[in-house]
Design a protein that fits this description.
8-stranded antiparallel beta sheet, 5-stranded antiparallel beta sheet, single chain, mainly beta
């Protein structure tokens, strides 16, 4: 009888221990893995990084920060998060953030976004929570001319994003209005080197700088004359024929002197291009970054 009496308390103790372990495992928060599959992202340098966010009950929850190397590879593509947050997430948003970043809120530079459906979100710049337009309807024209030097000389050394086909300067770029955190920037590729023509928000006014132009006023459209202050390795005046014309979308603020990955309009300048002729640009929106977020 004594042996039986000793066994009963032992069984009770074991049951109590197992029950406590079950309670602890049940009370521990469950987690899930968010996986990003993104293409077309570029290295942001040491001052900026990418950060993912999910909207849970309308509020942003960070999914983690990552960088991208020169090959386009992500430093991290899977992120562990509370399962309840993932299950309640309605949207994924990718932003560009300062690094280091003392602000716990998302920056205004929303890059890619998409709605979750059964744990999957297709991400694009066209989502309303990103840039809000797919840019496939964007068009552009330009001319070669140097209106900021007094004499009519070196006319192939300037590019202006306008339309002269009617005989009078008219708007040449038709682009969507950008949200906060972004600006357009024009470029001329000269001997393989992209050189800025300035940043702008509207295609019907001049851009914000003229570092290479002459002393005269240019037309009230984005553009630049490449007459003075040539960057290292280049000589101004020059001949833009055979180069390229580019319109990019740049994060604002922007820590890079090179064009950003978003280039909605690109045009090869004909090798036999002549001044004051209107040339068309091609639409490059199909090359924009994209991807998925899934859990």
């Amino acid at each position: 009888m004594r042996k039986v009496q000793m066994i009963v308390p032992l069984v009770m103790i074991l049951a109590l221990v197992i029950g406590c372990e079950d309670d602890e495992s049940t009370n521990q928060p469950q987690t899930g893995m968010l996986t990003l599959n993104l293409t077309g992202l570029e290295n942001l340098g040491s001052d900026y990084a990418y950060e993912g966010w999910i909207l849970v009950g309308g509020s942003p929850v960070s999914t983690g920060v990552f960088t991208v190397d020169d090959n386009g590879d992500l430093s991290a593509s899977t992120f562990e998060l509370p399962l309840t947050d993932l299950q309640a997430a309605t949207k994924f948003i990718l932003t560009i953030e300062p690094s280091p970043d003392s602000d716990p809120s998302p920056a205004s530079t929303h890059y890619l976004a998409g709605d979750f459906s059964q744990g999957n979100a297709s991400l694009s710049v066209g989502d309303a929570a990103a840039l809000g337009d797919d840019f496939t309807a964007s068009t552009g024209t330009y001319i070669l001319a140097t209106p900021t030097n007094n004499p009519s000389s070196d006319e192939n050394s300037g590019i202006w994003f306008l339309d002269l086909s009617s005989g009078n300067p008219a708007q040449g770029l038709f682009l969507p209005t950008l949200p906060d955190g972004w600006k357009y920037e024009g470029w001329a590729v000269i001997d393989g080197t992209p050189v800025t023509t300035g940043t702008f928000l509207s295609a019907t006014v001049g851009d914000d700088s003229a570092p290479y132009s002459g002393p005269e006023n240019g037309p009230e459209f984005p553009g630049e004359d490449f007459l003075v202050n040539a960057p290292a390795g280049l000589t101004f005046p020059t001949d833009l024929a055979g180069g390229a014309a580019v319109i990019s979308i740049e994060p604002d603020p922007d820590n890079s002197a090179a064009p950003f990955a978003l280039k909605p309009l690109v045009g090869n300048i004909p090798p036999d291009a002549t001044d004051h002729m209107t040339y068309e640009m091609g639409n490059n929106a199909s090359a924009f970054p994209a991807g998925t977020a899934s859990w």
